[in-house]
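Entry type: protein chain
Record version: 2
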Amino acid sequence: MAVVDEAECSVELCPQDLDWKFCRGRGKGGQNRNKLDTAVWLTHRPTGIRVRCEEERTQGQNKRKALARLRQEIGRRAHERQGRRVNRERRQQIGSGMRGDKIRTIRVRDDTVTNHLNGRKVRYADYVKGDFDDLIGG
């Protein structure tokens, strides 16, 4: 899981896009934990991302922490989406590296150079001299 720094994650959250729910925390913690709604469920409606925070003693502290976690998660997902897009574009440009991606085959033993884009062939000796207009089709 990539950690995105909150300073580099400049996610603007509209208050109307946030759904706050409060409940009691789980586990041991005594009277404060059992009687007060200090745990926070924060949902970002446009993305559907939900965050729960119940580590702190007060509701305000948990709200701040949940909001920071939500910003970080939205930033992390945006960062991953950007990385996937860049990788997809890069793969389209360089190809897969498989045999079907090759443009030409140079066979020195057979004295031939084959252009796979148009199927034309030229002698290897001419290709080495720089005379490959027939190969390209020009």
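Comment: Residues 102-136 form one domain.
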